[in-house]
Amino acid sequence: MNIENTQKKTAELKEKFESLSGSLCITDPAGTLLYANAGIERRTGFDVPEVIGKKPSELWGGYMPRTFYDHLWNTIQEKKDPF
User: Fold this and answer.
1) N or C: the chain end with fewer CB closer than 10 Å?
2) Which residues, 6 or more positions from 23, have their beta carbon under 8 angstroms from its beta carbon?
3) d(C-alpha 67, C-alpha 73), whole Å
4) pTM, to two decimals
5) What is the spatial distance between Cα 30 and Cα 37, in angstroms, rounded to a whole number?
6) DSSP 8-state class, residue 61
7) What are phi and psi of 77, to 5 degrees?
């Protein structure tokens, strides 16, 4: 795939992410936020530029039961699936 095609696909994906009614964030393997859509602002009250480069646990972590976090990390780290 050439760079022009990649840029077009990236723009299309970003547009779809932005149009979601729910919140979406993407992190690197260490859990640092790389991307967040506007749903994050509505759900958490944090502006998108505020959250980029931080870990979700620093911003809104600790509010769910331990079983939620166990399931989340098992899904991401062990199964290698999105959560």
Assistant:
1) N
2) 36, 37, 39, 40, 42, 43, 44
3) 10
4) 0.70
5) 19
6) T
7) -85, -40
Per DSSP, 74 falls in state: I
Of 1, 61, 64, whose CA–CA distance to 25 is shortest? Answer: 61
Cα–Cα distance list, 42 to 12, 50, 55, 65, 74 (Å): 22, 13, 18, 22, 27
Task: Encode pLDDT of 20-74 as tens digits.
Answer: 888 888 988 888 999 999 888 888 889 999 999 999 888 877 777 888 888 988 9
| Mode of pairing for the β-strands spanning 25-27 and 33-36 | antiparallel
Cα Rg of the chain (Å, integer) = 14
Residue 10 has pLDDT above 90, yes or no: no
